[in-house]
């Protein structure tokens, strides 16, 4: 059916857009969904839009725009191009091309193009009306006029057995299920009230998760629990981002004042985990921005920092929190100085600010921060690195410095290895390109044959040290197959010497190599078979 309604050219063109706008991990998950056969009811409209249903935690409805993939939509909570869209793409692409080949391309290093969608939170909040959720609403005494204090009292009652259930079953599933289910309490409430309820439900479950870790796991965060905390924070970021914050401040000030009281108590947490700190900063940055509230919180933090005989860890915690308000006061240098003195803070700690600067188009401010965080960016996990570099390139463009991007990528090594190597190659800076590959011990087998061929034609002598290193590595493997590969490279080295009219140097080189490995009988045999040594 799809083969009659669409063309191979459309599939290929859409694939190029997917490569430009979708993260590798999302493409991989989409391929997994496609391979599992959970994409169904696929249909085409107007020779442009591909519709499908995808079975995930529930059935999600996808509309893939083949002309502009960025405009594709899905009913799942993810706000960017999601795995369900990717799965739908693979369903269509597989009719015309081999999807495994496309997946292999997606997994290779590639340039990331900036899109404003990158700055949106990953998840949007669940709709208060309950659309798309098949479970019945949770029964509760709460109404839209209930206070925040009443909400938290209900949360405590609702989760009275949660910690023991987390201990008995899979902890991450139990707490996230509890969080998602309790959101249904606010179905039918006025929009702003439901949005604030979602924020508090998230804060409560994040606190409950930290309580579980401290009580049951001796403060040790298992990867699964850490991932759950990160998911809750992503949901919190989405809830705040998509909330009508102006209406909340105007019409729900008493509820926000109660929120301030809760945030003030959160300072009692320790810093064995930074998850609560992330949530604390989100609320003060985007929601609790009343000058009087901010002033009071700053004064409280400064008094706490000056408490006589206070433990050093407590003072450091208050300094860490106070630095956030320095950013709100545009005292970025002071905040960065404090945080870098504390040390051990990952790039994720700084990401909310970097994304906020980009959303506000404070491009120079963003660049100032990336300069201060160069080492963290260069060593960040791939997903975070690619996000920051895409925004960085856009920032450089906006301030009129695009022509500097290529050579400045060197500052972000090792994360920028692929982009920087590509820049050197395209600029025909072959010597630093080879030096870069040798510095990072890149095997010759991982290097593009197209790149090697061009360098061999333009300046073959530059490849001599790279080939020699690879030859020595192959010989150290001490097996016949590796020896044969070494002989192939030796023939290339011989051609380099011949082209440079240095045959005598070649003879001395191969003599030394043979003498060095004279006990390797199989290698000596391959030398003779290759007519390299008599």
What is the compact description of this entry?
With 534 residues, the protein is mostly helical. The protein is built from 28 helices and 4 strands. β3 and β4 form a beta hairpin.
Task: Tell me what the structure shows.
The chain is mainly alpha-helical and 534 residues long. The chain has 28 helices and 4 strands. It has a 4-stranded antiparallel sheet, covered by helices on one side. Strand 3 (59-65) and strand 4 form a beta hairpin. The longest helix has 26 residues, at 191-216. It is globular and about 90 Å long. It starts with a helix and ends in a 5-residue tail after the last helix. Mean pLDDT is 90; it is low at 128-134.
Secondary structure layout:
Blueprint: H1 2-5, H2 8-21, H3 24-35, E1 39-45, E2 49-55, E3 59-65, E4 73-74, H4 83-93, H5 99-107, H6 148-158, H7 162-168, H8 171-182, H9 191-216, H10 223-242, H11 245-251, H12 253-266, H13 275-286, H14 291-305, H15 312-328, H16 332-342, H17 347-359, H18 363-372, H19 374-378, H20 382-398, H21 405-408, H22 417-426, H23 430-439, H24 449-458, H25 464-477, H26 480-499, H27 503-516, H28 521-529
Antiparallel strand pairs: 1-2, 2-3, 3-4
